[in-house]
Amino acid sequence: MLNAEYNCKCEDHRIIERFGLEEAFKIIQFQPPCYVQGHLPLVQVAQSPIQPGLECFQGRGIHHPSGISSLLYFVEVEDSSNCVKSPSMGTLMGVYLPCMQNIFGVILFLRLTWMVGMAGVLQSFLIVLLCCCCTMLTTISMSAIATNGVVPAGGSYFMISRSLGPEFGGAVGLCFYLGTTFAGAMYILGAIEILLTYIVPQAAIFYPSGAHDASSAMLNNMRVYGTVFLILMAVVVFVGVKYVNKFASLFLACVVISILSIYAGAIKSIFDPPEFPICMLGNRTLIRDQFDVCAKTIVKDNITVASKLWENFCHNTNLTTENCDEYFLLNNVTEIAGIPGAASGILKDNLWSNYLEKGEILEKAHHPSVDVAGQKSSFHLYVLSDISTSFMVLVGIFFPSVTGIMAGSNRSGDLKDAQKSIPVGTILAIVTTSLVYFSCVLLFGACIEGVVLRDKYGDAVNKNLVVGTLSWPSPWVIVIGSFFSTCGAGLQSLTGAPRLLQAIAKDNIIPFLWVFGHGKANGEPTWALLLTALIAELGILIASLDMVAPILSMFFLMCYLFVNLACAVQTLLRTPNWRPRFKYYHWALSFLGMSICLALMFISSWYYALVAMLIAGMIYKYIEYQGAEKEWGDGIRGLSLSAARYALLRLEEGPPHTKNWRPQLLVLLKLDEDLHVKYPRLLTFASQLKAGKGLTIIGSVIQGNFLETYGEAQAAEQTIKNMMDIEKVKGFCQVVVANKVREGIAHLIQSCGLGGMKHNTVVLGWPYGWRQSEDPRSWKTFIGTVRCTTAAHLALLVPKNVSFYPSNHERYNEGNIDVWWIVHDGGMLMLLPFLLKQHKVWRKCKMRIFTVAQMDDNSIQMKKDLATFLYQLRIEAEVEVVEMQNSDISAYTYERTLMMEQRSQMLRQMRLTKTEREREAQLVKDRHSIARLESLYSDEEDEGDTMPENIQMTWTKEKCDAEKRNRGSAVGSFRDLISIKPNQSNVRRMHTAVKLNEVIVNRSHDARLVLLNMPGPPKNTDGDENYMEFLEVLTEGLERVLLVRGGGREVITIYS
């Protein structure tokens, strides 16, 4: 009963209200397809498998959402009469006929004879062969792509974008859109040329004011009539594509009849050539409509009088020769047959090329003549070449005549089975048209006189269409047929181009085009059609068929090039999803087609080719930086993966040479309680040091269990990525979850990177506030990381006071970067300032290198050697040698060492017993003051055992006595601190640190950045606290310090 009440015309659009959501879904699922469209905007949902009964939404610009709740998208329907059936166009009407119409457009009837006359039969064969091979190979590639999945509306754009990515797809798609739009303008110009030159010349609005103004008047006429034709065609397309399809049969019938008339005329010319005499003055071809009789004089009433030809050359009627053209007097006037016929043997004269320069007179070779220049004022009586010709020019003009191969794929949204129709229809169309072109080239060369072939507008045959002179039964057959065929091709272009633009706009990869994704209620692209008409009007204002054609060639060739590239890339990568039903393809054929496309681009016009590539490149970069990100599983991503794999395998062959060494950074970041980056200037420093080159990995550790904190790790990773974008850091992010932060850092140091693409330098933040913290974990994690990097033979950079480091927006117009070279570390201290100076922040800073000498060292020789070394390294820097005098240990140094050791001893004695730790844990728990995540590198670790949640304290007499003894010993230990004496080795180290710090502060207190060798940690872990104190003393009083520790290898070389 439910099925009976539902019909495909959607007459009752309240079916959901009547039967409920579940029943309505069952009806839609099992009933014939129906297209529902109401007042809601088009719903663009992510593609999903098509449910039975919802096929109508596919290919109409709407993708149905799967599931019962998805019906809510279509509940608010007002006008149910808009429902139409799903696309049902087959191979013949949907692909074959549109391709035939576009291919058999304006060039076949208006320029092919002229091309044969200029290039000769042999070179014309070569031109046709090159162009047809290009389109055939492209069609093979296109067929493979088209049969590798569903091809919705957008055809060629969809295939390229899903194969090569949105950047390539958008760039080539827009170029192809412009080419298709200008093609419509070219077809309209061809129709107007036929109309005003051969059908009704009297309809011209502008007339030449002089003998040399005919060209400009014709251009103005074409602009006016072209605009009118464009408006009419746009109205037809706006009314509906179904009307264009109805006209298509009529237009194609005209094309077929016209071509058949050419073959019939060629056969007839064997035994009965048509009468189209050509008047020759010497070997020069005359314009026939300037006179009536091909003779200098005529006999009228037995009196010899001057002919019209005499009047044109001599400007009198009394047969006097004073003002006559010299060439006219010395040469005879003869008539030859314009169509000698296929049996005349004229083919051998037309085999070879006869290229002309602009303004050159059409001459018949080997025809008797006296070679004199003649008067230039008489040149308008001869048939002249209107443009300079060459093989390259003819390739550019002819190529648009084979560019109709995308006509079917552009309308793939209207095809019932695009995967089957596009390959079969397009290949059949190319085979058919190629045979016609080859045969026409041969027939034109065998039947028509060479000077007539070179006559572009038929001036020598009394303004007849040259190809029409060969046709049978009448020239009007081909004139009318060619007119309708060009009109039909223009309609096809104006139909396909807006749909292509609509498909690009709906993908939203170019934000400013979004408005062109909308259209009428039935999905027709209204706004896209309007823009197409405006752009086509620009082509019509050019008004020259020969100027528009090479522009089209560039855009189409670029599109075909990328279609071949897409097929080749997919084939070579052998991606699992590459399973085309069309099996007759090979990557070598695709590369051959791509090579031919590229060659034809530069053969026809190298500067147009560069301009087209520049336009495509600009669109590509715009989409890359401004467009919406799309993940379509494109081939470029697969190509990148293959290239990366190949490069990584190559890097595995051995360590990089010193010349190729650059710091590949692993930046260890600290996060706060809210998982925000605590010191973002670490990222700023990394971006300034790298300037987008090499490898940068941003690592962080979250303490906990991976299963429980996975979501937290993902959030932290996204936060870091956002901060990387803000700081313009090009690199990767890795967040590790570990039970202990120290272990997580060790994991990052060991496992980050892949193969040969691993970090060689670790950037580690300074543990601020370690002195004030009673918890030793803050500096123990730091020293542990230093030891890990040393064990892994990695370089280490520790920026101290990183909050004072400059941002990327600051500029240092003056100042110094000071390098204190205490220990040779492989050249790290030399290389880092050079790399920093490549960035705009540090570019204007000067580099100074200080080295320390003892009193017994030769300071002058040291300075000279270091200056020579820097010169060989090609590093510009000022060199200074600082002499440190051997002085007695000062009281300040002794006191500083004493304070350091007292603090260490006191902290050791203050370590709580297990019982007190338990009591303290209970107290902290009661006060709710425990911090969840105080320090990423240290504070959140527990070195002791995990504290129990509930603690029961049971005091016995033994426990009480033990507690008193512990307290008593602690008091005694505190008394011992007063009488402690510092260790002499610590005193010496402190003395060195204090004296060195005094020298550095004295020389570099105003430096923008100080780079300093970082001493290694002690082998005995008992001295870790003293090590931290030494580093503090060494860097006191300096605003920005970068502690550098080499990785144990040379990183800079004097060799090129």
TrEMBL record:
Compartment(s) where it occurs, according to its Swiss-Prot or TrEMBL record: Cell membrane
Ranges for domain Amino acid permease/ SLC12A: 95-270, 388-666
Segments forming domain SLC12A transporter C-terminal: 680-797, 810-1056
Gene Ontology BP, a term: potassium ion import across plasma membrane
Primary residence: membrane
Membrane topology: Multi-pass membrane protein
Superkingdom to which the source organism belongs: Eukaryota
Pfam family, one: AA_permease
The entry's keywords: Cell membrane, Chloride, Glycoprotein, Ion transport, Membrane, Phosphoprotein, Potassium, Potassium transport, Symport, Transmembrane, Transmembrane helix, Transport
Entry annotated with the keyword Glycoprotein: yes
Gene Ontology molecular function: potassium:chloride symporter activity
Transmembrane segments: 95-114, 126-151, 171-201, 222-241, 247-266, 381-402, 422-448, 527-545, 551-572, 584-601
Signal peptide: none
Catalytic activity from the UniProt record: K(+)(in) + chloride(in) = K(+)(out) + chloride(out)
One Gene Ontology cellular component: plasma membrane
Similarity annotation: Belongs to the SLC12A transporter family. K/Cl co-transporter subfamily.
NCBIfam families (alphabetical): 2a30
Name assigned to this protein: Solute carrier family 12 member 4
Organism: Chrysolophus pictus (Golden pheasant)
Organism taxonomic ancestry: Eukaryota, Metazoa, Chordata, Craniata, Vertebrata
